[in-house]
Design brief:
The protein has 642 residues and is of the alpha+beta class. It contains 15 helices and 19 strands. Bound molecules: adenosine-5'-diphosphate and magnesium ion.
Length: 642
């Protein structure tokens, strides 16, 4: 199948464009994706940091309030007075005012003096609670996270105990386990020693229960995500975990309820709770993927007791991704289309000159020499210039050839009509000549030895000369019969030369024979060929009265199937104006009686009858060369290669 250049070029250009396009899409895709992921993660990370700060702030504020109470005169006075109800009233009021879940006071032994929430229960020891114990021991205030057991919370009030209870809910991908409820409370705790006259006389402590308390997480959500223009309020979330359980969250489940009691995934649990490290990445939260960050929450002894979590729905980033990538792909496609259009344009500009060249060469084959009009300064331009030169050369050669053939045609027509006339005359003269010769010969016999003998002899001789001329004319006019036989042209040459060599005309002429031994035999009239060669040799000798060289050569070309014979002399040459007349019968430059002007005419006739050509070229003062070409008869003479 022939695929043209345009299709080939177009296909390869398209291939290159598509390949680069595809590669840049793949590379760009990944780069953009990476960048977006990094950006998403750093956003989430900064949200996490904000959340931690706000969470820590809440603890600090609680701590501040507890401290303020502990140093107030009113409180010290109530503490020191024997009236317990006075202290009870004060603490209960403060707890309400500040809306703290737990606000209790102990004595120096860690026994409860008053409970702000549950006035009926007092006198029990809370020294086991690490915060109280540490405050008494180290005599300064503490704040932070803690886990309070259900039994303790019950003492503060059944409602508080109830608030702490979170039912465990199973979700896909969450941690497996067989716990059914979480009844401990995750607390923000702050303590202060009660000091009188430099001595610690008790402890005041406050605590807020995080379980089922959504104040912090919702405030966080408002603060952090407030300015972000997401289509759902649920786009960014904050969660507080007690151990692996969501105890306060604004992550929603399918029913749009807070996803309390759901568990974290095993992977996150392992990283954050077990190893105490920050976790950043994709996480499947309850029912969808989030870009998430988890940070451990620690108690006073630095044990990990829970986590703080922030996340942004991956969906949102995927939307941004999708938009960015769509834009990117559109850009690449537009770029590719542009590249393609450009390459098509270039292909057109490259191919147009070739089309012009092809068109012009077709015209050339039809015989019109149309030059191409391409003038670019590149290889195509070079090609066009070379092509135009070639056209000019072909034109010149064609015109020369035409002139030559016209000349040759004229020559052979002229010779043919001359031949017809001459042979007509010769025929007419031949018969009377025969009569004259017969009768004059008879008379010569009769009058031999008399005074008429000499005159009669002259008549016979001159008549013989006339007959010779007539025979020559008939030879030239192709009127005599050819007697062809299979022979070697070299033999004819050798015979003719060896006869002439001894003639006195050739005494000071060097004859150089150069014969090709591989010439095939052809059908020849040997007698006529010999006379052709002696004609040429005699002409050459006549042209070299003071001696010179005659070079006779023969050769055969298997390519053209032609035998070529050259007669080249170093004689006087022929003036150009005489060249067209050389083959005319009776054209001679020799003095009367010496030349008949028939030699070349007869030679021409004989060569024509062997289907050959004869040509003469000459330079006056330098020499003359006659060239004969004879075709070999392929069927008979030239064995086919086997
Ligand atoms: P002739 O020899 O009788 O003159 P030809 O037909 O043989 O007649 O030759 C015609 C003429 O061509 C010659 O008279 C001579 O002028 C010229 N000619 C032929 N051969 C040669 C040659 N080898 N060198 C120079 N002139 C030549
Ligand atoms: Mg002659």
């Amino acid at each position: 199948m022939k695929i043209n250049l345009r299709v080939k070029l177009t296909l390869s250009f398209i291939l290159v464009v598509l390949l680069t396009g595809a590669i840049s899409i793949i590379i760009g895709f990944n780069l953009i994706l990476d960048k977006l992921v990094v950006q998403a993660q750093s956003t989430v990370m900064s949200h996490l940091n904000s959340s931690e700060l706000i969470y820590a702030d809440d603890v600090d504020i609680l701590n501040l309030e507890i401290n303020r109470i502990s140093v107030s005169e009113e409180f010290i006075e109530a503490f020191l007075s024997d009236d317990r109800t006075k202290l009870q009233d004060l603490i209960s009021t403060r707890r309400n005012e500040l809306s703290i879940d737990i606000l209790n006071v102990t004595n120096a032994n860690g026994r409860i003096m008053v409970r702000g929430r549950n006035p009926d229960l007092y006198g029990d020891s809370v020294i086991g609670e690490i915060y109280v114990k540490k405050t008494l021991q180290e005599k300064h205030s503490f704040s932070g996270n803690g886990v309070f057991l259900q039994t303790y919370l019950q003492k503060e009030g059944t409602d508080l105990g109830q608030q702490a209870i979170v039912r465990i809910v199973k979700t896909p991908r969450s941690r497996k386990g067989d716990r059914l409820i979480e009844d401990r409370g995750l607390m923000q705790v702050a303590t202060s020693p009660v000091i009188h006259r430099g001595k610690v006389i008790g402890v005041i402590y406050g605590a807020n229960l995080i379980n089922n308390n959504f104040g912090f997480v919702d405030r966080m959500q408002r603060l952090v995500y407030e300015n972000e223009d997401y289509d759902t309020s649920n786009a960014g979330n904050v969660t507080i975990f007690l151990d692996d359980v969501r105890v306060s969250t604004n992550v929603r489940n399918e029913n749009n309820d807070r996803a309390l009691g759901t568990l974290v995934s095993e992977k996150v649990y392992d990283t954050v709770i077990q190893k105490g490290e920050t976790w950043l990445g994709r996480a499947f939260v309850v029912n969808q993927w989030y870009i998430s960050a988890y940070q451990p929450l620690r108690d006073l002894d630095n044990n990990v007791i829970g986590m703080i979590y922030v996340g942004i729905q991956e969906k949102l980033f995927q939307d941004i991704n999708r938009q960015t990538l769509l834009f990117y792909i559109l850009m690449i496609l537009a770029g590719s289309a542009l590249a393609l259009l450009l390459s098509l344009y270039f292909i057109k500009t490259i191919l147009t000159p070739y089309k012009t060249l092809i068109e012009s060469s077709k015209q050339l084959a039809r015989g019109s020499y149309i030059k191409v009009d391409i003038d670019s300064r590149d290889e195509v331009g070079d090609l066009a210039r070379a092509y135009n030169k070639m056209i000019a050369a072909i034109r010149e050669r064609d015109e020369k050839l035409r002139d030559q053939t016209e000349q040759q045609l004229g020559q052979s027509e002229k010779l043919a009509s001359l031949g017809r006339m001459a042979s007509g005359i010769a025929h007419e003269i031949n018969n009377p000549l025969t009569g004259i010769l017969t009768y004059s010969s008879m008379l010569l016999e009769d009058f031999r030895g008399t005074e008429f003998e000499e005159d009669l002899q002259t008549i016979v001789d001159e008549t013989m000369r006339c007959r010779k001329i007539v025979k020559g004319v008939l030879d030239f006019a192709r009127e005599t019969r050819l007697e062809k036989e299979k022979a070697n042209i070299n033999d004819a040459l050798k015979q003719a030369i060896s006869l002439l060599e001894r003639h006195y005309n050739f005494f000071n002429i060097e004859i150089i024979l150069n014969l090709d031994e591989n010439i095939p035999e052809i059908m020849l009239d040997l007698n006529l060929m010999r006379s052709v060669f002696s004609n040429l040799a005699v002409n050459a000798a006549d042209a070299m009265p003071n001696g010179g060289k005659l070079m006779v050569s023969s050769r055969f070309s298997p390519k053209t199937h032609l035998i070529t014979i050259d007669f080249a002399d170093t004689g006087i040459g022929i003036p150009p104006e005489n060249l067209p007349k050389i083959f005319d019968p009776f054209f001679t430059t020799k003095e009367p009686g010496k030349g008949t002007g028939l030699g070349m005419a007869v030679t021409y006739g004989i060569i024509k009858r062997h289907n050959g050509t004869i040509d003469i070229s000459s330079e006056p003062g330098v020499g003359t060369k006659v060239t004969i070409e004879l075709p070999i008869d392929d069927e008979i003479n030239y064995p086919k290669p086997s």
